[in-house]
Design a protein that fits this description.
Layout: H1 2-8, H2 13-34, H3 49-55, E1 61-66, E2 69-74, H4 75-86, H5 93-114, E3 118-121, H6 127-131, H7 139-147, E4 151-155, E5 158-159, E6 164-165, H8 175-179, E7 202-208, H9 209-220, H10 226-231, E8 234-237, E9 243-250, E10 253-258, H11 259-265, E11 273-277, E12 281-287, E13 295-296, H12 297-305, H13 310-317, E14 322-325
Parallel strand pairs: 1-3, 6-13
Antiparallel strand pairs: 1-2, 4-5, 4-14, 7-12, 8-9, 9-10, 11-12
Helix pairs in contact: 4-5, 4-7, 5-7, 5-12, 5-13
Amino acid sequence: MKLSKIVEKRTNKRDALGFLLFVFLLPYVCACLWGHAGNNTKEILTARKEYQADAVEAPYWVEVDMDWGTWKLPVEEYLVYRLAEVMQEDYEIEALKAQAVLLRTETVQALRAQGSDRIKAEDTGLAQFYYEDCQETAEQYWKAVESTKGLYLSYQGEPVQASYFKVSNGRTRDAEEVWHTDKCPYLTSVVCEQDRASAEWSSTVEVDRDSYIERVRQVVGETYTDETIWENGQFVYDEAGYVVKALYTEGKETAEIDGETFRRLWGLCSSSFEAERDERQIIFHVTGVGHGFGMSQYGANCRAFNGDTYDRILQEFFPGTELVKFE
């Protein structure tokens, strides 16, 4: 309604002069207001110049909801920024390529599931790349995505579950053992002894007795006594050494907390841990970072450093899969 009133209002000379002045000064005003929203706002397109020619013709898109609206970008460009989010830039280029393929595999799976040429993605930190001129700072990411353009990982004609994480405890996990499914035979246990050299491989978390009891009770229920929670909790491990579940038994009732949920209660880096308990506190000695399924990023980087190419790395972590071109 306001727009209609403005359009319908008769324009006098003073209004016309004011309007022309506004139009003339608009670019300057915008620059002053938003020029510092990012490091180089005026260079937004420069950061994506390699894709400008193809952008209009891109067959698949990702839409990211941001504060000001929806940012629509081609899949390959989106993957550059996702790669920058999940893997550090100083990793070997072949490790970055392997990760790029896994991210593309996730995207292909989502596109197929929706039966569409576009998908919605969360702004998990992508907004920074809209404002920043990342052409130079993200050079390795652009290179990794461009050199694997269109490739995704497939098993028996379908995109794989492209799981990845930062550092293993020395082995990755077997999906069939933990999830009780044979649908992901390529997610099998792989030895990653080199991960033990990571600075992030081990960590320790201390939790006082009262906090431990209170938080566990919030999950298992009020009927469980302090003694049961503190003294009688049992951890069940998988073959790779990760906790699958924590069990608390009160009489004939047993409450169960799965390993991933349990480790998040205390902010543990992974569910691969040993617990040391005394009268006052419980100490978690943790190894690895992440859920442990699929590709260890640190392990992939070690393999790349030792000369493995990205396709070989993917075969190591996802045996029986193949690279397929997404058209």
